[in-house]
TrEMBL record:
InterPro entries: 4-hydroxybenzoyl-CoA_TE, HotDog_dom_sf, YbgC/YbaW
Keywords of the record: Hydrolase
Superkingdom, natural source: Bacteria
Pfam short name (any one): 4HBT_2
Protein name (Swiss-Prot/TrEMBL): Acyl-CoA thioester hydrolase
MF-aspect GO terms: fatty acyl-CoA hydrolase activity
UniProt similarity note: Belongs to the 4-hydroxybenzoyl-CoA thioesterase family.
PANTHER family xrefs: 4-HYDROXYBENZOYL-COA THIOESTERASE FAMILY MEMBER, NOVEL THIOESTERASE SUPERFAMILY DOMAIN AND SAPOSIN A-TYPE DOMAIN CONTAINING PROTEIN (0610012H03RIK)
Length: 140
């Protein structure tokens, strides 16, 4: 639908996000992906709460992660996120996590259906999609 745009989100690994070995627990990446995705949408001019207030959600239907290297307590990581597909009914976000040495440590993706309050699959109103298009055009 639009050209690829990458957004970068920074996060410092907190103690409670690690396991007994001091390594970031794999479940933490689910939260970090969500944080990066929400901030990515905010950067494109869409607050996720506005989507919810309008009666819509992006329901996660699939999540994948490939863990390449460990991430440790107090490490500052960078999560780059892009919408590889977003047509108003379906969205796929790709995530690339980098450590402080700029090494790729995790690659992941989430897939979403747009749903209404009754959890029926619907199309996101054009008002949201148009905001995103406008923001991307400003960056060209």
């Amino acid at each position: 639908m639009w050209r690829v745009f990458m957004f970068s989100y920074k996060h410092r690994v907190r103690y409670y996000e690690t396991d007994k070995m001091g390594v970031a627990h794999h479940s933490s990446f689910v939260y970090w992906f969500e944080n990066a995705r929400v901030e990515f949408l905010r950067d494109l001019g869409i607050d996720y709460k506005d989507i919810e207030n309008a009666g819509y959600n992006l329901a996660v239907v699939e999540i994948n992660g490939r863990f390449l290297k460990p991430v440790f307590y107090d490490e500052l990581i960078s999560i780059k996120v892009k919408a590889s597909r977003f047509d108003g009914k379906y969205a796929k976000f790709d995530y690339y996590v980098f450590n402080e040495k700029s090494e790729t440590v995790v690659k992941g993706c989430t897939k979403h259906f747009v749903v209404d309050r009754e959890l029926k699959r619907v199309k996101l109103p054009d008002v949201f999609l148009n905001k995103i298009k406008e923001k991307l055009q400003e960056r060209e």
